[in-house]
Design a protein that fits this description.
Elements lengths: L1 E9 L4 H6 L8 E12 L7 E8 L6 E9 L4 E8 L10 E6 L10
Antiparallel strand pairs: 1-2, 3-4, 4-5, 5-6
Length: 108
């Protein structure tokens, strides 16, 4: 989305298994999103939408980022998570970007 940038950090296994894509990485990631310019929303946003997905292993496991709209606070909320657990509980992360009150977030 124009005017918002997200930075994601995640655990990644190195070595031969990591290079071949057969390593199983832990479900750990963090996210930080910031408003870096004027926010431009060209069309109504769904209440919740997957905005990014990346494969974390050869089969099944993916890192996902979901954007949710908090209309009451005129805020965009971003959640990162893995869709498959490895070694215990998932390490989810959430961040929020309060959009300038002059910009109304249209929701469909």
């Amino acid at each position: 989305m124009a005017g918002i940038t997200c930075y994601v950090s995640r655990a990644k296994t190195g070595g031969i298994k990591g290079a071949l894509g057969v390593a199983v990485d832990k479900a750990e990631a963090s996210i930080a999103c910031r408003q870096v310019g004027p926010v431009s929303i060209k069309q109504p946003l769904p209440q919740q939408e997957e905005v990014f997905s990346e494969r974390m292993s050869l089969l099944f496991k993916r890192l996902r980022i979901v954007r949710m709209v908090d209309r009451t606070r005129n805020t965009l909320v971003y959640l990162t998570y893995s869709d498959r657990l490895v070694d215990g509980s998932p390490q989810n992360a959430v961040t929020a970007v309060a959009v300038d009150r002059g910009t109304v977030i249209p929701v469909r």
